[in-house]
Amino acid sequence: MFGRKSKDSQYVLEFEKPLRELQKNLDELIARSQDAKVDISCEIHALEQKIASEERNIFANLSIWQRVLIARHPCRPYARDYIDNIFSDFQELHGDRLFNDDRAIIGGFATLQEESVMVIGEQKGRSLNENIECNFGCPYPEGYRKALRLMKLAEKFSLPLITFVDTPGAYPGIGSEERHVAESIAVNLRDMGRLETSIVSIIIGEGGSGGALGIAVADRVLALENSYYSVISPEGCAAILWKDRKFAPEAAEALQLSPENLLKFGIVEEILPEPLGGAHRNSDAVFASTKEAILRHLKALKKFSPKQLLEKRYARFRHVGIFSEEV
Predict the structure, then answer these.
(1) What is the chain's mean pLDDT, rounded?
(2) Would 187 be classed as within a structural domain?
(3) Are residues 233 and 119 in the same domain?
(4) Residue 1: which pLDDT band, with cuts at 50, 70 and 90?
(5) What are the phi and psi torsion angles at 105 (to 5°)?
(6) DSSP H or E stretch at residue 52
(7) Which of 26, 86, 179, 276 has the maximum number of C-beta atoms within 10 A of its C-beta?
């Protein structure tokens, strides 16, 4: 389940529509030349150059809100895609041993270049049925408790922990509140902070509030070029400040939702590049670069003892949000 979406998907973002029209014209021109058996290669080449130029111009000048839309693109690789393409021998583990198995969070043992690891990810669905099954990527409390169970297994067997963050936020419904979603996230924050094994987290799409942080208290946090990581979604912020969700683009700008700002503020250690237009344009390249980054950061963390890891992790999060002003 949760397979990768076809590369032929017709899903187009609003700001990509001029490109789609040009591509449509190019396809028609090529078809016409083949049907009439006429050489119009010069015209085709000129249109191809125009498309390439327009593409570079659009994606080099994206607003923060447009990058949020790319982070939510339904063709974008999801956690299971990264797991299947970066790791081998993935053995998924189910259930929190308390209530249920939350499909919005998946995880289990895996192998990364002959090294055993524990991998956990927040999962969205491709189809309506899959999205219902994994609650549109919004975990319930039992999802975080399952994740914590796997984290403690990683600690028990001295395995590195890798997590993939991609959620608009934890599910805020009645059932979630009845089963204490805030408490489950808080316990994860506390216990991840003192987990005696190396942790690398990657923001691969949306990183919404405590729903994201619940599996991202890590020694190294990486973010894809078109991702966001924030205390609240743009729509949630707009509903509070402007009393209307239509101001989400303005909220995205006010929240400074860009990986560059995350790097500037010390919230992430590295920005992972994406192909022009987003990770869904060339997912294999993204898998390769993400794998290389994970291996590099895990290698750097190996030189620290468990005690040193805890000290550095504590210091890392204590310094987030500290700033100074000149009088």
Answers:
(1) 90
(2) yes
(3) yes
(4) very low
(5) -130, 125
(6) helix 41-60
(7) 86
Closest-CA residue to 278 (of 64, 50, 77, 57): 77
pLDDT in tens, 77-124: 999 999 999 999 999 999 999 999 999 999 999 999 999 999 999 999
* DSSP bridge pairs for 203: 165, 223
Q: Are residues 98 and 53 in the same domain?
A: no
In the block, residue with structure tokens 């491709």: 126
Residues 27 and 124 in one domain: no
**pLDDT top residue among 154 and 43:** 154
Measured distance CA(198)–CA(7) in Å, rounded: 35
In whole angstroms, what is the distance from residue 159 CA to residue 310 CA?
Answer: 15
Q: Cα-Cα-Cα-Cα dihedral of 231, 235, 238, 243, to 10°?
A: -130
Q: How many domains does the chain have?
A: 2
Domain encompassing residue 275:
68-318
Q: Cβ neighbours of residue 190 under 8 Å, at least 6 residues apart?
A: none
pTM of the model: 0.89
pLDDT over 80 (residue 313): yes
Asked if the structure places residue 4 within a domain, the reply is no
Q: Is residue 6's pLDDT more than 60?
A: no
Q: Domain of 259: which CATH number?
A: 3.90.226.10
Phi, psi of 293 (to 5 degrees): -65, -40
Q: 294-297: long-range contacts at Cβ-Cβ below 8 A with a sequence spacing of 24 or more?
A: 294/86, 294/112, 294/162, 294/200, 294/202, 294/222, 295/112, 295/113, 297/200, 297/219, 297/220, 297/222, 297/269, 297/270
Residue type at 197?
T
| pLDDT for the residue numbered 122 | 97
Q: For residue 1, tell me if it sits in a domain.
A: no
pLDDT tier, 60 (very low <50, low <70, confident <90, very high otherwise): confident
CA distances from 113 to 88, 142, 289, 292 (A): 8, 31, 14, 11
pLDDT at 53 over 70: yes
34 and 108 housed in the same domain: no
Handedness of CA 208, 211, 216, 217 (dihedral sign): positive
